[in-house]
Amino acid sequence: MASPDADETWLLDSITGFLRGPAWALPVMSFIDENCIIFDGDAEHKFAYTAIYEAFKELVDSLLEAHLQDIGVSNVCSPPPSSYRPARVHQHMRPLGAICGGG
Questions:
Q1: How far apart are CA 98 and CA 1, in angstroms?
Q2: Do the beta carbons of residue 64 and residue 28 sit within 8 Å?
Q3: HEC secondary structure over 8-46
Q4: What's 77's DSSP letter?
Q5: Which residues contact 60 (CB under 8 A, 6 or more apart)?
Q6: What local confidence, expressed as pLDDT, does residue 45 receive?
Q7: pTM exceeding 0.70
Q8: What are the tens digits of pLDDT across the range 32-79?
Q9: In contact, 86 and 78? CB cutoff 8 Å
């Protein structure tokens, strides 16, 4: 049986590789290209910023969920027991917390 550290390392490596690859970069860059015109420095567009932010969160969530399903990982947004979560892994999981609705 693999140790929790080995499992965590494998998952972090997989997510890191995904975030560096075209399956992540292409949709994210397309989204940025399609929406960057809204960000012209005019403070009157703040409501539009919120809508774009929400759409971006949905894009990120769907991309990560699809990748995790592809590699056979589920329930990544459910926190593991604290004994399974060393501090260094907790630090790397913070970005996932934001995606999973943790802020």
A1: 30
A2: no
A3: HHHHHHHHHHHHCCHHHHHHHHHHHHHHHHHCCCCHHHH
A4: T
A5: 28, 99
A6: 63
A7: no
A8: 999 988 877 766 667 778 889 999 999 999 999 999 999 998 766 555
A9: no
